[in-house]
Design brief:
Elements (H helix, E strand, L loop, with lengths): L2 H49 L1
């Protein structure tokens, strides 16, 4: 493998890693959003039950 080939391969690997990282971040963001939705729903339920 020539130095040029090696640099091209490293660039491909770096690109793949950045895509994986972005996908993982998006997945975690969706998980956090669901957790927040649940927490908000719990707070609303507590307020409704507390005012009854």
């Amino acid at each position: 493998m020539t130095e040029k080939d090696q640099k091209a391969r490293h660039k491909e690997i770096a690109s793949a890693l950045s895509q994986i990282s972005e996908q993982e971040l998006k997945k975690r963001a969706k998980e956090i959003e669901k957790e927040l939705d649940r927490a908000i729903a719990d707070q609303l339920e507590a307020r409704v039950l507390g005012s009854s």
